[in-house]
Design a protein that fits this description.
Elements: H1 6-23, H2 30-52, H3 64-86
Length: 87
Amino acid sequence: MGTMSILSWLVVGLIAGFLASRVMRGGGYGLIGDIIVGVVGALIGGWLATTFLKMPNPVNGINIGTILVAFIGAVILLGILRLFRRR
């Protein structure tokens, strides 16, 4: 998981998942669900930032940049989940 500890991933995941669920106007997924959405969002956002923006290590600790990358990934994840849920 790179340079982040498990606790860092959980904190970033919780913050990003919570913020993304509020922005996407969902009911939220609860504490565990928000953490999962945020952590998966961090993976998605990190991959996108590395692949397309050529950022060397976009997810690296608990900071604004990491939370922003995770948040963007979480919003993308929630958008994809909503597309499948509507069908």
